[in-house]
Amino acid sequence: MSEWSQLERFLQTDPEDVGCGEAMEIMHVYADLVQAGADPEARYPGVAAHLRACGPCAEDLEGLLAALNDPHD
Amino acid sequence: MGSVEPAAHGDTTATLDPESAEWVRALAGGGAGRERALLRLHEMLLRVARGEVSRRAPRLSISGPELDDLAHQAAADAMMALTGKLEQFRGESRFTTWAYKFVIFEVSGKIGRHYWRKPDVRLDTEDWERLPDRMGFDPAHQAEWHDLIVALHRAVDDDLTPHQRRVFIAIVLNGIPLDALVAEMDSNRNAIYKTLFDARRKLAASLAARGYLNHYARRS
Ligand SMILES: [Zn+2]
C-alpha cells in the first residue's frame, strides 16, 4: 500500500462512528450478541463503525469476549 | 458522529435469565445472602481482572507483583462502581457480562495511568522527523511522501485548535496511548477520541483542498 493511502486511511472518519461513550455504554450487549453468534454489526452499525476505528474500545471488547470465553464459567 | 438508535436504550427491561435474576436478587437484598453474593462477585471480578491483565501483559511494561496488584485494584474499583449502579442493570445482557465490563474498563484505565511511570515518556515533544516511521512509511519512497508530510505539518499548524493540535501531537507523533492521554489530561476516552476524530476530519479536508489526498485516488 502506498504512503498516500496509508495516511488517507488514517485521516478518514466514518460519519456513522458513535464515539467511545456510546460504544462503551452498549459494549456488554454487543459482546453477548457476538458470543451468541448473532449479528451485532447489523443491530449496532454505529458501534461497529466505532470499533473498527478505535483501538482502545476494540481492545476492551476483545478482553470482554476473552473473559466470556474463559472455560472457568 | 452518528448515534446508537433510541431502541437500543429503550426503557423496557428485558426478562432476566435465571442466573442474572439471582445475582440481582441477592445483591439488592440484605443480610447474609448479600454478603455471600458480594464475596462471590469479588472472586469472579478478580478472576476476570487477572485474566485481562495477563492477556495484555505481553504488550505492557508491567509484570509480576505489580501486575497482580493492578488486577486487585481493578477488581476492587469495579466492585465499587458496579454495586453503586446496580439499578442501571436492565437485563439487556447477562448480569455477568455487564459485571465483567466494569473490570475491563478499570483495567484499561489503570494501564493508562501506569503508562506515565515509564521514565522516557514525552507528551508535548514535537518531532516531525518521527512521523514517517510512526505511519510506517518506507524510507525508500521518501521522494513520494516528503511533500505530503510537509503539507500535513502545515495543516496541523494552521487548521487545528490548540487542543486538537496537542492531542494530535501526543497520540500521532509521540505515540501516547489514548487511555494514557485520558489519564494525563484528566479527561475521558470519549472526549479525547472526539477531539482526535475532529482533527482527523479537518486534516483530511484541508489536505484534499490542497490537492493532496486525491493523489492516491488518481493513481489507483
Ligand atoms: Zn472508543
From TrEMBL, chain A:
It comes from the Bacteria. This is Zinc-finger domain-containing protein.
TrEMBL record, chain B:
GO terms for cellular component: DNA-directed RNA polymerase complex. Keywords: DNA-directed RNA polymerase, Transcription. InterPro entries: RNA_pol_sigma-70_dom, RNA_pol_sigma_r2, RNA_pol_sigma_r3/r4-like, WH-like_DNA-bd_sf. It comes from the Bacteria. The keyword Transport does not apply. The keyword Transcription applies. SUPFAM superfamilies: Sigma2 domain of RNA polymerase sigma factors (SSF88946), Sigma3 and sigma4 domains of RNA polymerase sigma factors (SSF88659). GO terms for biological process: DNA-templated transcription initiation. GO terms for molecular function: DNA-binding transcription factor activity. NCBIfam families: sigma70-ECF. This is DNA-directed RNA polymerase sigma-70 factor. It comes from Planotetraspora kaengkrachanensis.
